[in-house]
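Batch manifest line 355
LIGAND: iron/sulfur cluster
JOB: complex structure
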Amino acid sequence: MEFHIERAKVLPKANLHSFISGLKKWGKLIAPVRKGEKFVFTHVEKPEEVELNYTRTILPPKKFLVPYRRERFSYSVEDLSFKTNFKAENQVIFGIHSCDLHGISILDSIYLKENPDPRYLEVRKRTVLIGVSCVPDEFCFCLATATAFPEGASWDLFLTDIGADYFVSIGSPKGDEIVYSQRSLFRDIEKEDLNAYKATTLKKKSLFKPEQLPDLERISHVVELEYDSEVWQEEAKRCLGCGTCTNVCPTCFCYTSVDVPNIAGTEVKRIEFTTSCQYPYYSLVAGGHYFKATRADRFKHRYYHKLVGYPYQVEMLGCVGCGRCSAECPASISMVETIKRLRGCNEKELREVTE
Ligand code: SF4
Ligand code: SF4
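JOB STATUS: finished
ARTIFACT:
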């Protein structure tokens, strides 16, 4: 029997709420909702709560794959027996932008490529990812990181806004199943739909101003060459070391753990929680040595890991250009500007060498 997956369908916007309601059949529904002036991914019950007209959420949907605080296990102090309370449930994360889908693909590589983390695998298998197209603001630079469009990431469905309808690309057998289960809401693609879909690519590209896009050509090499650049010291002078940039990042995954005893001292929980390379204790090892002793060391480490470490580790940049770190930094430090300064410095040095 020939196995055929439909590549795309059209969902009239008038059917969006019915479609969202139907998604609850596939798991707990998570989607972006408005929170004051900002947006957050959260559990939703009603389709009217979902807000698709957003640029970025405060935190990426990563928090539903790798919670910021999680219990690894607990053990009895008396007999040293171990227990785990881990339980993954089916979930549908709806309304994810392309950059965050790529962020999840990077996490997939981190957690699943070598020595797969069984918990991440279990959560991932139970998660449906549905993306939606977006409009960039001044902090976005996903066009430079090649993550402005969902191709290359792993997802089940992707909705592109083409005016009165959504052009729904189908990215997996699960996505195909979801569309088929609500097939009365969809119609087949017509030539005008395809033309409108193609036009959205050009339109999105045209919305980026040249100055908001860093040149990332051979960036790993540039950052390595600029290891001793004064740019790190200068930028780090403004840095508060607050860790916001890593906490909001869709690709950061560092965590630490602490053992928390109950009040009777009979049972201990091993709690893992997200940490930041921007905190001094992050690089503290036994004997009291700090591998990243100064703020400039820690500041540089983040860029170095994103732009040199990840490509080495997972063959992708560790930045998807979502702009969260720049938009949320209380010191207004911009990833794009730092990269530009490094690039400029590097070009100047290269000119000096070649002249
Ligand atoms: S968010 Fe800004 S101030 Fe805070 S650690 Fe990151 S770069 Fe420094
Ligand atoms: S480094 Fe900044 S712009 Fe890049 S993915 Fe992380 S938060 Fe987004």
